[in-house]
Amino acid sequence: EVDLEERLHELDLRSDSDIPDVPPPTDSTPEILKRALSGLSARWKNWWIRGILSLAMISGFFLIIYMGSFMLMLLVLSIQVKCYHEIITIGYRVYHSYDLPWFRSLSWYFLLCVNYFFYGETVADYFATFVQRREQLQFLIRYHRFISFALYLTGFCMFVLSLVKKHYRLQFYMFAWTHVTLLITVTQSHLVIQNLFEGMIWFLVPISSVICNDITAYIFGFFFGRTPLIKLSPKKTWEGFIGGFFSTVVFGFISSYFLAQHQYFVCPVEYNSETNRFVTECEPSELFQMKKYSVPPLLQAVLGWETVNMYPFQMHSFALSTFASLIGPFGGFFASGFKRAFKIKDFADTIPGHGGIMDRFDCQYLMATFVHVYITSFIRGPNPSKLLKQLLILQPEQQLSVYKTLKSHLVEKGILQPSLRG
Amino acid sequence: LQESESENKLDGETASDSESKSDFGGSSPVPTSDDTPEVLNRALSNLSSRWKNWWVRGILTLAMITFFFIIIYLGPIVLMTIVMCVQIKCFHEIITIGYNVYHSYDLPWFRTLSWYFLLCVNYFFYGETVTDYFFTLVQREEPLRILSKYHRFISFALYLAGFCMFVLSLVKKHYRLQFYMFGWTHVTLLIVVTQSHLIIHNLFEGMIWFIVPISCVICNDIMAYMFGFFFGRTPLIKLSPKKTWEGFIGGFFSTVLFGLLLSYVMAGYRYFTCPVEFNNDTNSFTVDCEPSELFQLQEYNIPVVLQSVLGWKTVRMYPFQIHSIALSTFASLIGPFGGFFASGFKRAFKIKDFASTIPGHGGIMDRFDCQYLMATFVNVYIASFIRGPNPSKLIQQFLTLRPDQQLHIFNTLKAHLVDRGVLGSLEDA
After folding, report:
1. Which residues of A fall within a CB distance of 8 Å from B391?
2. Which helix (H) or strand (E) holds B243?
3. Which comes out higher in pLDDT, residue A189 or A37?
4. Tens-binned pLDDT, residue by residue, of chain B (429 aa)
5. Residue B387 DSSP one-character state
6. What backbone torsions phi and psi does residue A416 show, to the nearest 5 degrees?
């Protein structure tokens, strides 16, 4: 069964770089827009289409925020699935691998597995009371990792069994492509949802900062742009980059100021098992209570104030906006490089004038992870209810020893009075 | 050890060796040099190629197993160092294959970036593990405490630096190659580094959780080969034509038996069954504890079916031996899929072996391909069925909470303990 030709040909995959051009995506602008704008020149027409769609997307975003956390989570999930689909489709086109046996089913199966694993780990914590009531769910939760691993293994074994002699390399490429895509899209989307549970403001401010940076960098570049920023994206300029940075920081301050006043945005999202709904009601933490800050002498001369009333959260928004403006664009450059590498214009043609969903979300890649890492490092510690749940699973002897350690710690810190009644 | 086609078909070599040989043929991008030591070459010069190969493999196998025993004797720290070295070598082997296949030695920055990412991911994982197990040590030293408190942030910043360097290093002509190598590096990290850290977690649980799984996989390899050699007739899978059903099934039963026997012997020693702990006073690792009930002999009733076969009514076994059945079963039934995956990979990229590190066997990856999934399985198994969460880690998390949260948890725990009768209601425990 040895293929003579395969045997003698030295394996040199540099030829993998010579891909045929992928056909440009079709123009999916709706007819109605086309007729309305038929009078304008091509440049302005494009501008108008992009502008209208931008407004449409932003309005849609506001609408969903109004509808609540659950809708937001559904939105995040749909976006994740669509992004995954877009990247996988590019893989299929690039490798002409539509005919690979099983591969489409396997890709979707792996997406399902990884989502099941992540949702089980995170969401289960938040629905603790809901889960406690139902026996079957308790079983699923207790052995969650094992079940997820078993599901993944099944997919892995199916992949191995599906290997076909002529297509080994293609199949391995697609396997790796699937896994890297899962790593990028699914992890980010779950971090976004965890940020959301922390408080909608942790979801809204980062995403808006990235969008704002996109738009203002484009506008500054359009009007003042002169010095190119990076060879990879010739349209980007230093003027746009710096102008975008300052605008985004200011925007972050202002939007945080407004959002910090409403409990709807500031409170952690909780699941109320009695009403079976998500609620955002709480005593706002000190992050969201006005404080007086002394203005540094440098700025005193500029602003004319000696102190200013700000929310502590606004200081954090400064960090978030800075990241969105300085490092966020690297996600965009990465996506540009990827598109050039695989000779595609856009990830897909889902949104007229803008390309695919991935095109809109490329700068958000790193933002979600950054926000999550930021929150766990600087804002809150671990989730108390998760901690409690783990404590209750321990063996009684372990619980007792933990209890003693905790008690001595609390007494030491004066949080607990060392009396006989505890 | 360049052998002719016909000899390949007659030789009873293990599958991972010969299928890739049979379609590799004349020229190869990664020629594996014959690095059998001169001594061996001379000693075996009289035998035919077939037996010479057998002897070389045999001697090296014994050498590796002896080495394994020696490092077990030397203790947990040496074991961890060895795991780390194996991890680095595996990473190096797979990345080198990528370079060879894509002729990408000239890609700017890429070698540096690959090693940098390896360092980052290892820093992240070791930081997470070390913080848990060395908790008191870390709390004492100020710089360590800060590093551990902001560990995730620091790791993420380090990774980001690498990511940005990658983006800045993109060169117009080589975009696609660079993305390939980036993807290759990340998948390799995912496979190699995560497995090695799960192994170390298993090791901390008790050396028995490290030794029994690895030995079961090795035993299955060897037994399946022997059974296949003597009784093999029905091919198992097209991917590895030398594997047979007889070898597979024979290997399965032998491995289960081997697992039971090995567990029985090891469960009697604290050195193997106790969790590895870091002793703050002596600043060294100790394995000293009261063996858990997993490692205390119990009477089991033999199912009626086996009573007639064995002639006993009850048997004294360690509960751990029951778990070892699960471990051996996984090693025999699913472990080989890791081997098939590696075979498929080698055929896909037209390589004979991952590298030529071990004479007669190939690279380190060739020896560890079946271990891929085993480490993850053992870790998931332990987390799901054996132990719960780590108490010291929980205490550590507790200390980072706000006072009101701490009080709430403390009171809930107290109520729970009183409820269970573990704590008297008017306590001063």
Report:
1. 394, 398, 401-402
2. strand B240-244
3. A189
4. 333 333 333 333 333 333 333 333 333 344 444 556 666 666 666 666 767 777 777 888 888 888 888 888 887 788 888 888 989 988 988 888 888 777 766 776 788 899 999 999 999 988 887 777 776 666 667 787 788 778 889 999 999 999 999 988 888 888 888 888 888 899 899 888 988 888 888 888 888 998 999 999 989 988 988 888 888 888 888 878 888 898 899 999 999 999 999 999 988 888 888 888 777 667 677 777 777 778 888 887 777 777 777 777 778 888 888 899 999 999 999 888 888 888 888 888 888 777 777 766 677 777 787 787 898 899 889 888 886 666 766 777 777 677 777 787 788 778 777 877 777 654 544
5. -
6. -120, 135
Q: In chain A, what are the domain boundaries?
A: 74-100+164-381, 384-416
Three-state secondary structure of A390-405: HHHHCCHHHHHHHHHH
Closest Cα of chain B to A44: distance in Å? 31
pLDDT at B17 (0 to 100): 36
CB contact under 8 A, A400 and B373: no
Name the A residues in 326-365 with CB < 8 Å from any B CB. 327, 330, 333-334, 337-338, 340-342
Q: Which of B215, B202, B315 is nearest to B257 (CA)?
A: B215
Q: Which residues pair with B278 in a beta bridge?
A: B285
Which of B405, B129, B36 is CA-nearest to residue A285?
B405
Distance CA B225, CA B222 (A): 5
Nearest Cα to Cα of residue A111 among A139, A64, A68, A78? A78
Question: Within 10 Å of residue B97's Cβ, how many Cβ atoms?
Answer: 22
**CA angle, residues B286, B291, B296, in degrees to nearest 5:** 150
Instruction: Report pLDDT for B141.
Output: 74
Could you say which of B153, B160, B183 has the minimum Cβ distance to residue A180?
A: B183
Which residues of B fall within a CB distance of 8 Å from A406? 395, 398, 406, 409-410, 413
Interacting residues of B418 by C-beta distance below 8 A, sequence separation 6+: B424, B425, B427
The residue whose two tokens read 């034509």 is B241
Q: Do B394 and A409 touch (CB under 8 A)?
A: no
Query: pLDDT category, A421, cuts 50, 70, 90?
Result: very low
Give yes or no for A2 touching B (CB within 8 A): yes
Q: Is A1 helix (H, G, I), strand (E, B) or coil?
A: coil
In the beta sheet, which residues pair with residue B426?
Answer: none
Beta bridge partners of A293: A308
Query: What are B137's two structure tokens?
Result: 């040590």
- On whether the CB atoms of residues B278 and B75 are closer than 8 A, the answer is no
Q: Across the interface, do B24 and A7 touch by the CB < 8 Å criterion?
A: yes
Residue A244, CA distances (Å) to A37, A221, A238, B317, B404 in order: 29, 9, 10, 70, 41
Q: End-to-end alpha-carbon separation of chain A, Å? A: 78
* Tens-place pLDDT, residues A243-267: 999 999 999 999 998 888 887 888 8
Look at chain A and count its residues: 422
Is the CB of A66 inside 8 Å of chain B's CB atoms?
A: no
Angle between helices A328-341 and A312-326 (to 10 degrees): 20
* Nearest by CB: B397 against A387, A415, A420: A387
Nearest by CB to A420, which of B397, B414, B428? B428
List CB contacts (< 8 A) between B424 and chain A.
none
Residues of B in contact with A394 (CB under 8 A): 388-389, 391, 394
A392, closest residue in chain B (CA to CA): B413
Q: Does the structure show a pLDDT above 70 at A291?
A: yes
What Å distances lie between residue A216 and A25, A61, A219, A327, A396, CA to CA? 27, 19, 5, 16, 58
What's the rounded Cα separation, in Å, for the pair A243 and B108? 31
| Helices H / strands E in chain B, number of each | 20, 6
pLDDT above 50: residue A7? no
